[in-house]
């Protein structure tokens, strides 16, 4: 559910397994998005309730969300239209994200996604990819610690993405407090993406990001490639967990005491203070297992229930 609301219909919402409100993207925070008209084929136009060849512009803000109360209302509406689907809110790693995440948790969201600057779509402006947003490590740490301090951590699942490349990243994210982990760009590479960075031109040479049939015919990927990639990531995580002496990933979630800075001296990083990331001093205890087993959040009794139950 992005700011343009393209393709968001009652049928779409009612049949989804999970719904996500995308506040921004890690690669271009606060900039909105645009799908060029030449990429809006008849099929894409049908999915997005538009017309072929018409550019689809998503504005930077959601024009129905200008406060945390507005966001809470949208989360309420999504829970009403599909009580079985978890509602996720995607935020971008930046200073102050902990305060926003606390509001999202209080607004009855099921999942909070933290998106870092290091990944992102190939259609983003190069200036934004290189210079906008913040690292997921800082955003995740601030969100995790702020939620614990306010007694909200057990109410939401924390999901993180943005430049994940291996099982090492998964283990680091888990130790910093994340429950779930997203791979985007590297998963595309596993299926055949060559990082030509011309996604916005509709001329992707391997057909990954093109609507042109002659280019899509060149697509070399098969589902097995992606399955193998994630199997190797999972095996890498399993091996490192065994070396640390743990049986499952849940055992190390929030265990920042397992992280140690590398003992190297670099000019650009020698004055960085990583104590904020590596310390959980003063934070109360919380249970990661409770988060995994919780049901989809409910709106509770509402007037609709009374009206719909009345036969007259």
Automatic annotation (TrEMBL):
InterPro entries listed in its UniProt record: Aldolase_TIM (IPR013785), Glu_synthdom (IPR002932), Glutamate_Synthase (IPR051394)
Gene3D superfamilies: Aldolase class I
GO biological process, one term: glutamate biosynthetic process
GO molecular function (one): glutamate synthase activity
Residue span, Glutamate synthase domain: 1-246
Pfam family, one: Glu_synthase
CDD domains assigned: GltS_FMN
Domain of life: Eukaryota
SUPFAM superfamilies hit by this protein: FMN-linked oxidoreductases (SSF51395)
PANTHER family linked: BNAA03G19380D PROTEIN, GLUTAMATE SYNTHASE [NADPH] SMALL CHAIN
Family under the similarity heading: Belongs to the glutamate synthase family.
Name by which UniProt lists this protein: Glutamate synthase domain-containing protein
Annotated organism of origin: Gossypium harknessii
